[in-house]
Amino acid sequence: MTTTLFVSALLVAAFPGQGLVQPAADPAGIAPDLAPITRDQAQQRADSLFVQLDLNHDGIVTLDEAMQATAQLKAERRATGRDVAPGIGGHTARFMIRRFEHAEAIARPQFEQAMLDHFDQMDLNHDGVLSTAEREQAKVAKRAPQ
């Protein structure tokens, strides 16, 4: 139970839910959660997010850190509308909950690998870029009844 709460808290902070402030569409009219993203960008975002969650900078995110970081990141998002992981949504959170369901803590390499594995899963043509169409497909798939 504690592990599930840990992962859930971690992911609530990391990935915006519905009803939270979302960034405006870019000038091309593409919503940020559907804008193309490269595998390198996904890795950079995973690393950046991990750094924000690893409050004592020991390379591992514990339950206490996740809870503290969750509160800080949620407050920042509410105050500024800035999304700490733009374009990575709830489907990623669900993926990671399954991946780390039994983890007591999450190390940076595990966190990064989970994010990249999910990126690769969504990258249907395996070109190293999640296109708007691929991201839309993932968004639609997450709404489909399981």
Describe the structure.
- With 146 residues, this protein is mainly alpha-helical.
- The chain has one domain.
- It contains six helices and four strands, in the order αβαβααβαβα.
- It has helices at residues 2-14, 39-53, 63-80, 90-99, 108-122, 132-143; strands spanning 37-38, 60-61, 106-107, 129-130.
- The strands form two sheets. Strands 1-4 form a two-stranded antiparallel sheet. The protein has a two-stranded antiparallel ribbon with strand order 2-3.
Question: Quick summary of this structure?
Answer:
By secondary structure, this protein is mainly α. 57% of the residues lie in helices and 5% in strands. The model is unreliable at 15-27 (pLDDT under 50).
How can the largest sheet be summarized?
2 strands, antiparallel
> Percent of residues in helical segments?
55-70%
Total helical elements: 6
N/C terminus separation: 23 Å
Radius of gyration: 15 Å
Give, in order, the helices and strands: HEHEHHEHEH
Broad structural category: mainly alpha
Physical arrangement of strands within the biggest beta sheet: 1-4
Unreliably modeled segments: 15-27
